[in-house]
Amino acid sequence: MMVELQHSPMTWEEYADRNAGVTFATWIFDATEEDVMKYQYAEGIWFCSDRFHETYNSDADCRVLFHCNDGNIYQTASDDVVDIETNGERKYVRMLKTIDAEARRMLDKFFGRTWPLKQWDGAPTFRQAATIDTPVRVLSEAGRPEIDRWHRNFMYRFPSVPRIVVSAPPGAGKTTEIIEMMRRWHKRALVITFNKGTQETMQQRIQQAGLTADARTLDSLCYDACSRPELMQKWSDWELCNQFWPKSAKFKFGKSGGGRRSSNIIDFRFRHPRAHASICKQHRRLALKGSDWDGEFTSYPVQKIVQSCMTHAACRYVCDQRCSLRAKLDAYDVILVDEMQDLISAQEQRLLFQTSKPVVLVGDPMQAINNFRDDPPCTSCHLEQENAPALSNAIEWYGTWRLDSFTVRFVEERFERRMYSYRAVDDTSEVYWKDELVHAKTLVICRYNKNVVGVAMRYPDMRVVRGDTLAQQLAIAAKDDSMVTPMAKYAQELARSGELETVCQMLRERSVRLADVNDMAAVTTVHQVKGFEYDHCAVHSDLLAPKNRDERNISFVAFTRHRKSLVVMAKSD
């Protein structure tokens, strides 16, 4: 048995040598001149600034303690020094916890009533531990498993602040954790999801768990708050013109009119009502004869659409202007937002935060791949987006059950996303860099619809996720030369070459729902598979060179869908 008081730094080799042959060891490192901080987001956890910078392994027969400048002795919660960021400041810390019963017994035996020692010649002035009251980010590999566990446990407490943000990596079990939070809180909860598909899935999970919580979309809440209008429209540009200008619709939809892109411009204005807009010469022709259309909310037909709440975008606008969601949200004890990265535009935040109840936002900023919704629909108009307010610092989770340790390291190197794999060391995945598929039943993920068609043509037995919808979109886009999206350009190329009908027929014949993709080969775009996972996946070469942050996020989602193997379809030189 050995109790060792250590004042000066020592290497892990020296530490190991001193422990050799010792049956039971207790080390007490002197940290009385270092800062010690209590961590608000983990019960019974402290961080001590570390000057030793070494790994000191501990186990049932060897305990490592730190005597800190608040006069207390704590036990290490991990063997390594941990690199963290708190309030924008980087620190190297030792993570500490309350000493266990065996360490306490040893100190009682060795020191009697004199521990922890408070005064001696040259002793520093002890002071109360500071508090870290914002979530820390773990920059090193060391510390991720522990912080992940503590941060998850923290969320099982009912929120005591108005808003909490949780950032979780792919495969972190977000839905499972949301269900567990609600189970432990014993409160009336509402989960807000991005779309109807995710709402139905969440409601099913809630029912399976035996909970009474509700899952809704923002659109459904706004629809209810607007007294459930009878006719909800989703106009094409032609349908909009024909609805509001039946006598001049043909002219307005022609090349000299402003009908094309008009529906998207109106929806854009509803999503960004507080931003500046200046309408181009072409779209000013939407107004009645003798005046210019300015896109303002008092203009025709915008005012009429608002008055009758004729679209979901109009319902959101009305609820934003009138704070109509407050009563509906306040009927619950807590609001949870799933996949929050898709629901935090400026307007969406105003809608969500109308409530006086706590709001918990769970998601992953690096999986924000729907920002294209806010791209200005006309390059000639000057349409500004509202700047979304910054959210509070996120409580980060690091653990993933989907990805193995090798893939985690590969993804971190490529995308700088810090993660930790909960899969067993021998439960490994395969990553290949080649232009051929390795497994027949592989899900190929593309960035662009053009390449979805190309992959489907290359592999005759491969199904196409929502191929019927893609065929319909290509047929519509081929007829509208005002559309400037990549899909529209491709549709027009197919039309000019006479291949459009053949391609559309193939897509319709091989169409499959994403929910039915199981034990088969299929191809899809990345925007359809967020939240989906598959044993064998392949990433198309059009996802390998992202040019900006939005494209990086899209690539990141594609690289994190597989469980067993990933083929990176890099073209050979």
Automatic annotation (TrEMBL):
GO BP field: double-strand break repair via homologous recombination; replication fork processing
| Segments forming a coiled coil | none
Q: Name one GO molecular function term.
A: 3'-5' DNA helicase activity
Pfam families per the UniProt record, alphabetical: AAA_19 (PF13245), Viral_helicase1 (PF01443)
Q: Which GO terms describe its cellular component?
A: nucleus
Q: Which residues form the (+)RNA virus helicase C-terminal domain?
A: 517-569
User: PANTHER family of this UniProt entry?
Assistant: F-BOX DNA HELICASE 1, UVRD / RECB / PCRA DNA HELICASE FAMILY MEMBER
Q: What is the name of the protein in this document?
A: (+)RNA virus helicase C-terminal domain-containing protein
* Organism expressing this protein natively: Cymbomonas tetramitiformis
